[in-house]
Batch of 4 targets.
Target 1
Amino acid sequence: MGRTWDARSYDRVGGPMTAMALAVVDRLELRGDEVVLDAGCGTGRVTEHLLERLPAGRVIAVDADPDMVVTAREVLGRRAVVRQADLTELVLDEPVDAVLSTATFHWVLDHERLFQRLFAVLRPGGRLAAQCGGAGNLSQLLGATEAVASGDGWQRFFAGWSRPMRYAGPDETADLLRAAGFTDVRCWLQPRPSTPDEPLEYLATVPLGAHLDRLPEERKRPFVEEVAARLPEPVTADYVRLNIDARRPA
């Protein structure tokens, strides 16, 4: 993962992300007694909804960010095993029946390795249901951000830097999933614009966090304000989500 996170702020303002994630939880076929990996569990709020669908099952929740892991452990307690791990290096003590992932894969640049590791931790017949930022995600917001970042007073902070996100398309993703061994692959894009209740904090915590990692503390708020000023009112995150369904052959 190519950025740091403020888990407390994310837990407070991350409602739009949770709302998009719940549709993925509902999409995952479950009996209720499976072992499921939540790959990129964040603060554990989506994991709570997943646990509701597993009255006789278990969840292994994994995130790469240490602050997210601490918060998820507080939220979930003994209801789930929470681990800090890089998904591209993931090894589990036991195979899982299914993998759920929301708002995570776009923070992993090596999708080839990512899908290989997820395939490896699934049982034969196991299912993958995921959603992340896809091709065209946040194009308006990131356009405004790049306009600010390239301007006077900001340019020096971003010289030689590229955003640590990968917004892939459905065709290239499907090809990588099949190359990793998955079958029954289905990938599609879905526009999901979202208007946050607290736009400045939301921008700082979620879509602009990687940019703010480049700035000294006193420059972060002015940067977010300049980006917001370039966006139409009300401030809207123009999300395009990449949905993924796939299966490891039985």
Target 2
Amino acid sequence: MAQKVTPRSKDYSRWYTDVVRMAELADYAPVRGCMVIRPYGYALWENIQQGLDRRFKATGHQNAYFPLFIPLSFIQKEAEHVEGFAPQLAVVTHGGGEKLEEPLVVRPTSETIINSMLAQWIRSYRDLPMLLNQWCNVVRWEKRTRLFLRTTEFLWQEGHTAHATEQEAREETMRMLEVYRDFAETDAAIPVISGRKSESEKFAGTVDSYSIEALMGNGWALQAGTSHFLGQNFARVFGTQFLNERNEQEFVWQTSWGLSTRMVGAVVMVHGDDQGLVLPPRLAPIQAVLVPIWKSEEERAQVMEIAQGIQNLLEGVRLRLDDREGYTPGWKFNDWEMRGVPLRIELGPRDAAAGQVTLARRDQKGSKEAVPLAGLDEQVPALLKEIQQNLFDRAAHFREEHTQYPEDYAGLAQAVETGFAWAWWCGSAECEARVKDETKATIRNVPLEQPAGRGHCIVCGEEAHEQAVFARAY
């Protein structure tokens, strides 16, 4: 590559932007705060979509689509909702050259407009549960933006469900949180902490919010997915009711949950290095690249014949044959390293003569191994599986090294400089606000898995029943 990536140790923020742009994942759009997702980046997003969509459908959800424009009055119906989103709303006041009778909000999230339809569709307990999901774009007018991590417009999925009982809705909330955890750890190879959001950090208009939190390569946290128990808040303001088995009218109990293109940013920051992307095989658009090497036309014919055979042999692998003319093998190697392709297969004249190929793993710098062509169809998938596990183990080890359990406030302030800090918290908003004001760290969540016993709040010293995870965050 002509350009070089800024080293992570020199400027982590610049490193991230360099990798996203030089690996051709995305670029800046003409509209401030927006991005253009390039084909390679969109292919990565499509693999994220497929991994999630498969899980959604396996748990009984169906995809639907609702309008981009939402009447402003809908947003205003739920007090907490409008207060939480007011600073981020993009509002359309004119259309077709005329002033609109009612302003329209460009979708920041869809709880309101979906409830307006559920109120028409749900009549009886027989209509429940209603399990919907939509893949769409949303707009939130952000002041500070960063490619994939926080943009004015972004892509996501948002699930919305309606249930007959509170217990069913709460079970759904936790079920989808577990779906996100499984996806993050199994497909993205990113270890996460599942937990409940504090009151100040929860989604506007919810009863309870839950999240999965991941640790990035610079020691900052990233909220990678959220699942919300809405209770009956939106059902009451939109009149979303059903006739129960006792022939009585009840309001439905609801959930919503979402994961966005910021997951692409998480993959970059958790696994990437100074050479560029390092992609987990399950999500990589190209799992293996085959680079044929030759100097003469005779060598080219010999090598390409074997290369075609390898393509046929590895039908189950997302394989790219790089037979581009005018580029040296070294340039190609660097190019595919930048793009994070998990496995490179080199095939030169000597390899061809020996009936072998040379394998180079992206997750292990300088790792090369000559292997016979015979059995390659079994060895490559096995190696990709090994790379996937290694990336998860490496990320888990990094998180462990950057997680502390401070026993006093000074220790907490120091711990959040480099990663996660687990500490007892009394639950008060005042203690939470003090940490944020003085250290710039927030409570990422209160983990579902808690240590036994009780302790004393890391801030005020009062008795505490739960530990929270503190960290600086994107």
Target 3
Amino acid sequence: MRRLALLALLPLIAAAPPAENKKLTPTDVVAQMGDEFWITIPAEDLLVMTLEGGSRVVIQLAPEFAPVHVANIRKMATSGYWQGATVYRVQDNYVAQWGLGEAERALPEGVVKLPPHEYWRPLKGVAFQAVGASDPYSKQAGFSNGWPVATYKDGTASLTHCYGAVGVARDLAPDTGSSSELYTIIGHAPRQLDRNIAIVGRVIEGIENLSSLPRGTDKMGFYAKGQAARPIQSVHLASSMPVETRPSFQHLDDSTAGFAQYAKVRMNRDDDFYRVAAGGADICNIPVPIRPTPKK
């Protein structure tokens, strides 16, 4: 009923009507959203990774879906655990992976070495907004608090391996990964990984600084002997940075009629460029709009 109510409100969000005969693009829909349609991401949920040379990657963490892994990441970031870490694997159309690699270092105090898998969670308690298109990997796909989510017949839900998703590298079960080694998707969404590896966040700024790195020439895209891994200069939580320099971002509120219209237009592209509307979209082809927090 809530979704029907949202859809019924769609005409109310257009503060000013578009030019006559102009067909709205997704960009047009997002551009007409006022500040009330946006939610600020908490500073403690932003992980700021600076690569050698100063290029920056900002990751939004997902404690609602992976609370233990995210707690580990926060402890590692605040303790300086990743000092000397590198991006040591870049596999074409798949992932970029970073951490200490084979370097041995004791985990910081309080880090759970073998966390629960956190590959999925109960759907109960998730503010789920169905997108309305079929999903071959799940019962139904949609959004929750700005995250792309898949739901399943057993009453569970998981985050999805869309472009930019950040997951925990692990060995074979029962290893779940401590979160000391992380990866991000830099190619076509490998949704077969959903519910098999913990997703702990997503890159919301600077993905190009990882996706553009030289591909590893060893097996699975690991850098071979003679290839230089990209050093990581620092990793911090935004909440630990001075207020005047810390990054701040907002995501479009997926519980609003504005987001419903945005998703509808993404699924039915019928603007001046298109001749045929697809009539649907993969959940990963409806990226949640994210913007820097406007300065007041």
Target 4
Amino acid sequence: MSKSFSIGVDLGGTNLRVAAYGAEGVFLETISLKTRLADGRHAVVSDLCAAIASLLRRYGSERGCAGIGIGSPGPLELPSGIIRNPPNLTGWDGFNLRHAIESTLERPVSIENDANLAALAEQAQGAGKLLGSDSLCMLTMGTGVGSGFILDGKIWHGSSGMGGEAGHIVVDPEGQRCGCGGIGCLEQYASATAIVRMMSESSRTPASALEVAQWAMAGDPVAQAVFHRVGRALAIALTAVVNTLNLPLYVIGGGASDAWELFAPTMFQELLSRSYIYRLTAPNSDPMVEDKAGVASRTQICRARLGSEAGLLGACLYGLQDPLQQANELEMRIG
């Protein structure tokens, strides 16, 4: 077999995507399904494994499968692959996702937090590559708000694999109760779900965050106010991260980030007034056109470059890495 491939899985609260990815850097095939959360976790795992098996049958005879990367919502206990109190996966607390998948497929898989994998992809092939940065923080605005940290080219996990949950930084201590059990988390003000909820608190109930964005673009003042709240919440959370870590690059992705023009002005204005580290290091121009030589000393904040493909691509790239080496490195990093 002259070429190898990997399989990547992006397990989301709404959608489930599984792809075969060639080592030469191309997607061979992508399977997209709805995540059947209402039918229980074993139904979701069954769908996931069936899709993986079909790709193994189609491409395994011509190529060698280097590995299977699974991106899952967190918090995840790693390297065991046990999900702990996931805000957007009701009934999954304590579920050993790795064991469930491996026992069905009868082959090893590599489990990672989905936002970590999106961040890995952005560092390797997205904004990080364009700006020459091997360290970044990524926030993903989807069903919830995920986050991933890449430090010196490696995923940062924390002491038990649960590091990087910036979506649960408190941005309003008297605010909305969050699925994590906290109050006023970023996720409750900057996710697609939150955008719909905040708009619904007025006299209208939108079908999606996209519809709220369309209303805002058309001049609806209530919808515009929703995105001002999004920008303010992001700025408060970013202030905590920027002041603490002083990373060179912060990337914002996920479906709701398509409304960048609606929330980014408020986000940058609030960030300048809140973060003294950002005031000292703010770039002088668009980070995508600024001289790369100045990136290391500047705090760049920009939209993700890979769009909705980041999480899936990251899972595929992770699958191309040696699973045993991953496990050994992870054990060493988190003890």
